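Dear support,

I submitted the protein below through the web form. The confirmation email said the job was done, but the results page showed an empty box. After a refresh the structure appeared. I'm attaching both so you can tell me whether what I see now is the final result or a partial one.
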Amino acid sequence: MGHTSSWTHHVTLPGEALSVLRARRFVCFHLAEHRLLYLLEDVRLVTSELAANAVRHAQTSFTVTLQQINKAHPDNGYVLLSVHDGSPSPPVHMTSGVLDTSGRGVSIIDLVSQDWGVTHETGGGKSVWASFVLR
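What the results page shows now:
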């Protein structure tokens, strides 16, 4: 069964700390535009983690893509968030201690998204994506 995209939005941001805030604002604006406010907190949190990883670890510009995917059968579709950066290194799932101030990003993404993964790009870099089920 095929999948189709209802809408897609992209933004490319420089690899700097302020871009994490801009990425969050980007997804919040478009989720509100499409009346998907019930997804806002989870998608914003995952966007923060993915954008911060792009800034901290890839140290390249990155592209945030937000799109709605509709399934060909009656079940609801999903919103797909992806962050593409110039580094081929995937995110690492770390075990963090109670007092650690970092290393929880992958665990957070795993907890609040329906599914997530990494796609390595032919021309270099990677896209880390997460999906969120529509009601």
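Response: this is the final, complete result; the empty box was a page-load delay. Residues 52 and 64 are 12 Å apart (CA to CA).
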